[in-house]
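Sequence design from tokenized structure. All designs in this work follow the same two-part layout: the structure record, then the generated sequence. An example of the structure record is given first.
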């Protein structure tokens, strides 16, 4: 296939009248449109206004999709323990599958081709199967909670670790390497030291398995961890082995100077979730400072109950604007920096090589956008447009590993209408469950 349009190769290179040639799961060539059309005369051709690397959701909760809107205007820990966790606990395996499908459908429709996905304690198989079948690239993990968990989610430490190992054996590095595993403790508040150390031991036992957890999202959380351990959150995670280049820490809003030094020295990845942090009044993560220190910062939407959208373009806009306001500096986190966070930085956090840019020999994760829109007129700078003006529903084409998932605005790997209809059926009973 030859895809033509204005090509954003990465955060620094644009081919104005360009093309991307895809053969199998890889990009065969990127360059001027006419040159590549001459070189590959027999390839199928598709044209879009703007071509760019698929975006990376650096921290999402696909299986919380059925809880969109159930807990607005609530404090983080109340939101989590009174609404979201009880909802997760109530879902059957079939309902968990429906939730994951709904989440992945939204990601595919809006141009997210890779997701670092924080699942739930039970029925993680359902999400792995959905991700495999729907074609998204993912770093997924079953949640572990062996303390302070509501009924239906609390499990003993040995069960949490053994269930995680079973899932590693079943799903890690499957679908041609498109699906990988991350050990996923919920956060230090709900995990014992034995559980956290066990996650590190398991990750070290398997090549390519990573660790994904929440950290320092909220001041109450930080205070609780310090009360439990006598240490600030990042220092505690570092002590039990949950820092390093194979670790993704979501949020990191409330860190002090010494914790930031640890993040930088260990190469730990941080995921910035600005919409969630604003909606839950968690605060503003010191992202510009992290970037100045050389910390790899990815970009994530978090979950639909605290966003309430998985649109990555909305998140890019919020990411830049919130940093500008926080630092009182209009030059902070410009569009190209945010673009890098949403592509290469996210792929690096997820551990996927040759993902996040449109380069010869790299994985063919490509999205195509329309710019035939009033808010895209005029279009002086494509990076500015993507970060500050584009929406997820501008995405008309989504490809992962050379497989077309969405074409001309229609998802072709799943029945979108059926997924939405099933989600509505389940959602009708969720409020009743929470009130019971």
């Amino acid at each position: 296939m030859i895809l033509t349009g204005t090509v954003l190769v990465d955060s620094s290179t644009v081919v104005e009248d360009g093309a991307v040639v895809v053969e199998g799961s890889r990009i065969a060539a990127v360059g001027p449109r006419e040159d590549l059309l001459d070189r590959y005369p027999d390839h199928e051709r598709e044209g879009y206004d703007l071509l760019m690397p698929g975006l990376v959701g650096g921290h999402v909760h696909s299986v919380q999709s059925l809880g969109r809107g159930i807990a607005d205007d609530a404090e983080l820990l109340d939101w989590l323990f009174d609404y979201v966790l009880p909802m997760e606990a109530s879902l059957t395996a079939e309902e968990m599958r429906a939730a994951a499908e709904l989440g992945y459908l939204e990601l595919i429709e809006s141009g997210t081709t890779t997701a670092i996905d924080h699942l739930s304690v039970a029925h993680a198989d359902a999400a792995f199967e959905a991700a495999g079948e729907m074609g998204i690239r993912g770093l997924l993990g079953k949640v572990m909670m062996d303390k302070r968990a509501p009924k239906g989610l609390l499990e003993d430490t040995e069960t949490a670790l053994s269930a995680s190992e079973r899932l590693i054996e079943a799903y890690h590095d499957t679908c041609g390497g498109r699906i990988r595993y991350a050990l996923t403790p919920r956060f230090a508040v709900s995990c014992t030291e034995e559980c956290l150390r066990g996650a590190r031991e398991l990750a070290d036992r398997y090549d390519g398995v990573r660790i994904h957890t929440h950290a320092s999202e909220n001041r109450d959380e930080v205070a609780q961890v310090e009360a439990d351990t006598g240490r600030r959150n990042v220092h505690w995670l570092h002590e039990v082995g949950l820092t390093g280049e194979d670790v993704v820490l979501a949020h990191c809003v409330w860190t002090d100077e010494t914790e930031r030094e640890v993040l930088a020295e260990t190469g730990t990845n941080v995921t910035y979730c600005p919409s969630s942090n604003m909606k839950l009044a968690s605060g503003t993560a010191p992202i510009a400072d992290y970037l100045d220190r050389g910390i790899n910062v990815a970009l994530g939407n978090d979950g639909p109950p605290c966003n309430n959208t998985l649109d990555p373009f909305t998140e890019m806009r919020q990411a830049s604007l919130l940093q500008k306001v926080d630092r009182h500096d209009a030059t902070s986190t410009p569009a190209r920096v945010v673009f890098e966070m949403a592509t290469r930085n996210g792929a690096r956090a997820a551990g996927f090589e040759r993902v996040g840019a449109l380069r010869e020999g790299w994985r063919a994760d490509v999205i195509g956008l329309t710019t035939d829109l009033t808010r895209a007129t005029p279009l002086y700078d494509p990076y500015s447009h993507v970060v500050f003006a584009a929406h997820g529903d501008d995405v008309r084409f989504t490809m992962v590993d050379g497989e077309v998932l969405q074409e001309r605005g229609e998802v072709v790997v799943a029945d979108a209408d059926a997924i939405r209809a099933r989600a509505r059926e389940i959602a009708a009973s969720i409020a009743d469950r929470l009130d019971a």
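The mean pLDDT is 96. We note this feature because it recurs in several other targets discussed in the main text.
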